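Comment on the following before class.
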Amino acid sequence: MATNSDKWIRRYHPAPDAPTRLVCFPHAGGSASFYHPVSRALSPEIDVVAVQYPGRQDRRTEPLVSSIEELANLIVMELEPWADRPLTFFGHSMGASLAYEVALRLEARGTTLLGLFASGRRAPSRWRDERVHLAGEEELLAELRNLSGTGPAVLEDEEILRMILPAVRNDYRAAETYRPEPGRVGCPVVVMFGNEDPKVTEEEALSWAEHTTKEATFRLFDGGHFYLNSHAQQVIQEIRQFVAECGAVAAK
């Protein structure tokens, strides 16, 4: 069994007696600590862990990984020891693409997921010609401000910005150059997105139905790309209800 000190997996509120586990995948430039409130809210009924990518926070000196596929290959090896109980994935933005790729790999290795939450991200098959990762620093900063996912204190601190921008640019490169092979996960998919999100249209979100052999459901929220910040309680309740229902079925 993996330990809490594992550099890839963060477990802020261990719930060893929980029957299921939620694995959270951060957005581009994000870190595992983004999901600390989710962990606090769902423990001890669900054991919540979050993935920490290389190149940020305490892993900032490690080489960045600029491919969704390569990152998924690394993460699946780290997650396998955590599959000792039913898993549900939650990924936001780039994290949704990554969660999907990790799910495909885990399923190929014999692990069946309870479900996959894809938040704020168009379906893998819906490609856009986006090149934010090639932009200058000011354009990249403008993108961060526009999406409202980075706190103003960070955006105004030049030293912190210099630390995080390489990871942000790297993750945008990974997300924008992602070209998935055709595939479907064998678990239900819950798609969540904001009605004012410039990164995903309703049509692009609905296309997630093409990437599962099970049911795809959709939840539309008021807000932009980081709608979940202002609808945190509702999102957490959706996760709680889904896991409870699917976990009960799996236990029969």
Q: What stands out?
A: The chain has a mean pLDDT of 89. The domain at 9-251 is CATH 3.40.50.1820 (Rossmann fold).
